[in-house]
């Protein structure tokens, strides 16, 4: 999956110009900010919550919150970083309030790529697809055992493929703290997958 990146564009008005335009009463400025970042924020939200409807709602809520609080934006970080932090906080709230449910790994609407797990064996394609889907579902169940913070970091790292330093910036955490959370998350996921892996290995031997 393509990675989320903080990019400064040289063409057109700057984010600061669009913010000032909005604060001056011209709502077209904020409409341009939405157009510029909506897809990127949705992709990030979907990578974390793994549900299209929730990701869409989070994206809309993030822009509403940013609009309401736009006058408080002091420019100490890039606007995109500030907006992404708002969306990530809403993702955390969503994860904390969500009861467990099985969410298939798949692409967001309009995406051509999605994280996948390839099984390198000689089994028929249909059987390999089933096994791959089972592995993806097992990983999702394992990830659901993580804390909201660990889910955010794990999914940004492994689904959006963000560098640890970029995740640290988005979460306003020290890189070492992000690395520690990720280490614990990966360890928990592997631990949760052990019974599934053992059961499937035994089933393979019995065939």
Description:
The protein is mostly helical and 207 residues long. The protein folds into two domains: 9-98, Orthogonal Bundle (Rna Polymerase Sigma Factor, Chain: A), CATH 1.10.1740; 117-207, Winged helix-like DNA-binding domain superfamily/Winged helix DNA-binding domain (Arc Repressor Mutant, subunit A), CATH 1.10.10. It contains eight helices and no strands. The protein has helices at residues 15-23, 28-49, 52-68, 79-97, 125-143, 148-158, 164-171, 175-206. Helix 2 (28-49) runs antiparallel to helix 3 (52-68).
Short description:
The protein is mainly α and 207 residues long. It has helices at residues 15-23, 28-49, 52-68, 79-97, 125-143, 148-158, 164-171, 175-206.
């Amino acid at each position: 999956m393509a990675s989320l990146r903080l990019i400064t564009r040289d063409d057109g008005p700057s984010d600061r110009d669009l913010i000032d335009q909005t604060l001056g009463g011209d709502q077209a400025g904020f409409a341009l900010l939405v157009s510029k970042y909506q897809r990127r924020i949705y992709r990030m939200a979907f990578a974390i919550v793994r549900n299209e409807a929730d990701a869409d709602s989070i994206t809309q809520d993030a822009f509403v919150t940013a609009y309401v609080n736009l006058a408080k934006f002091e420019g100490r970080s890039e606007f995109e970083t500030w907006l992404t932090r708002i969306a990530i906080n809403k993702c955390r709230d969503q994860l904390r309030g969500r009861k467990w449910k099985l969410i298939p790994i798949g692409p967001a609407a309009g995406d051509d790529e999605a994280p996948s797990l390839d099984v390198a064996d000689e089994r028929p394609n249909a059987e390999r697809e089933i096994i791959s889907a089972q592995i993806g579902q097992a990983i999702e169940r394992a990830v659901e055992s993580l804390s909201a913070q660990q889910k955010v970091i794990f999914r940004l790292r492994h689904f959006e493929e963000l560098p640890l330093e970029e995740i640290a910036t988005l979460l306003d955490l020290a890189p070492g703290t992000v690395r520690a959370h990720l280490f614990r998350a990966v360890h928990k996921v592997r631990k949760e997958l052990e019974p599934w892996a053992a059961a499937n290995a035994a089933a393979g031997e019995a065939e």
